[in-house]
């Protein structure tokens, strides 16, 4: 709808429900690992957008690192920035906006490829499940850091 302004607090308020959705999508018989990973990344994107100045042109490419550089990195101390850089670097190869179009089979292949690139240990069970556990853990840590920065 035109005319409804989304303010920084709205982005931050959206981050938690997106993460909760990611957690739900990763559980149970009806789990959807691609959708869970997509929602986790969306939660991070919401949190990072909450630090952008009002009226600032949004980057439509969903570049989490660029969003962090234009917002949250300007509001945190060096140690917190270092932690966020590390977490975003970990998340970067695991999340992309196009995950919303992946079938379960395509996401499993994507996960198998990624896990094979950086893990020498054998994964028992689904590579997608393994990847989603990493994504959810990393997302939770990023959101915690962003909320801490938001309150300061």
Structure explained in plain terms:
The chain is an all-alpha fold and 152 residues long. The chain has one domain (8-151): Four Helix Bundle (Hemerythrin (Met), subunit A). The chain is 63% helix and 0% strand. The longest helix is centred in the last third of the chain and has 25 residues, at 127-151. The chain is globular. The mean pLDDT is 89.
From the structure provided, what is the oligomeric state, counting identical versus distinct chains?
A: single chain
Biggest sheet character: none
CATH topology: Four Helix Bundle (Hemerythrin (Met), subunit A)
Q: Bin the helical content.
A: 55-70%
Count of discrete structural domains: 1
* CATH C-level: Mainly Alpha
User: What is the correct CATH architecture?
Assistant: Up-down Bundle
Helix/strand class: mainly alpha
Key terms for this structure?
63% helix, Four Helix Bundle (Hemerythrin (Met), subunit A), 152 residues, mainly alpha
Put the structure in a nutshell:
The chain is mainly α. It has helices at residues 8-25, 33-49, 64-70, 78-91, 104-118, 127-151. It is globular and about 45 Å long.
Q: What's the topology here?
A:
Elements lengths: L7 H18 L7 H17 L14 H7 L7 H14 L12 H15 L8 H25 L1
